[in-house]
Amino acid sequence: MVRLNLGCNRSIMEGYVNLDIVKYKGVNVVHDLNDIPYPFPDNYFDEICMNSILEHLPTEFYKILRELKRISKSGCIWKIIVPCRDNYAYVGDTSHCRMFSYRSFDAWAINPCVRIHGETDFGLGTFLKILKAKIIFSDNIFLRWINYIVKINQRMYDRFFYYYLPARKIEFEMEIL
């Protein structure tokens, strides 16, 4: 099983190819993720972890997805953590280039969180299956109860309450078809 820790920074994962733009201790591959193509062959990875990296890439998002799709085997699992669009830390970090909601990958999913007519897939088609799209409010033990309440209906939260009760991050897990 070949696994990639994309944009790892100093969070080195054992048993993974650790890629970052800076040669930190433990980084196996140094590469700028805005420089496409990535230095891997087609259909190479079984799993790709992307923890707090996608929001930092100014390259057009569909181009990044196309490249990630290229290096992923069929059945590859993408594990993604991104800040939620209404997170105070997202807005305060000027290195963030794009926002995410729990429906950010719907245009490419066979099972979207919400199907909106007229969305474009930028020629990529539907190539992924969303296994998890989870809005997270807090890791704080005293505030975890909010996570359980919103889990009841994330769509309703996303549509009506996100502005009043900002979430911290979103965790996605997807399978490449």
Draw up the topology in text.
Layout: E1 3-6, E2 17-20, E3 29-30, E4 45-51, H1 61-71, E5 72-83, H2 88-92, E6 128-136, H3 145-151, H4 154-161, E7 169-176
Parallel strand pairs: 1-2, 1-4, 2-3, 4-5
Antiparallel strand pairs: 5-7, 6-7
Note the main sheet: 7 strands, mixed
Assign the CATH topology.
Answer: Rossmann fold
What ranges have pLDDT less than 50 throughout 5 or more consecutive residues?
Answer: none
What structural category characterises the helix and strand content? alpha/beta
User: Which CATH architecture is right?
Assistant: 3-Layer(aba) Sandwich
Shape: globular
Quickly count the helices: 4
User: Could you name the CATH class?
Assistant: Alpha Beta
Distance between the termini: 17 Å
CATH superfamily: Vaccinia Virus protein VP39
**Quaternary structure classification:** single chain
Report the β-strand fraction as a percent range.
25-35%
Radius of gyration: 16 Å
Could you walk me through the main structural features you see in this protein, from its secondary elements to its overall organization?
The protein has helices at 61-71, 88-92, 145-151, 154-161, and strands at residues 3-6, 17-20, 29-30, 45-51, 72-83, 128-136, 169-176. α1 links the parallel β4 (45-51) and β5 (72-83). With 177 residues, the protein is of the alpha/beta class. The chain starts with a strand and ends with a strand. The protein has a single domain (3-176), classed as Vaccinia Virus protein VP39 (Rossmann fold). 18% of the residues lie in helices and 26% in strands. The chain has a seven-stranded mixed sheet with strand order 3-2-1-4-5-7-6.
